[in-house]
Amino acid sequence: MAIIRCIVCSKRISNKAETCMHCGAIMKGSSEEQLERAAHLQKLKKNRRIQSFSFLAILAFVLGFFLYYFKPSDGIWRQVSIYLLAIGFIGYIVSRAWILYNKKK
Ligand SMILES: [Zn+2]
Fold this sequence. Notes:
This protein is mainly alpha-helical and 105 residues long. 65% of the residues lie in helices and 6% in strands. A two-stranded antiparallel sheet has the order 1-2. Helix 1 runs antiparallel to helix 2. The longest helix is centred in the middle third of the chain and has 39 residues, at 32-70. The mean pLDDT is 88. Zinc ion is lined by residues 6, 8-9, 11, 20, 22-23, 25.
């Protein structure tokens, strides 16, 4: 028994495994083309997840921006708006870095 990498999710699995225990890809009896298609789909799904994360970050940032400018300048709303701005900004940077990292792989 040897350890190989799943062609779909690239996690470690046994070469005797019939399906990948991480992503459920069927190893036995699948053609190269089928596995590649599954890998592509997996990547698309991941990208979509990152994109929705990125979208949420932008939404938080915009919301924070509006709160900052249109609510009274003291009290809880000012704090909430600053948190939202920070979360949105950091979230956006993280999602961009994530996308770059995924492209390299
Ligand atoms: Zn897998």
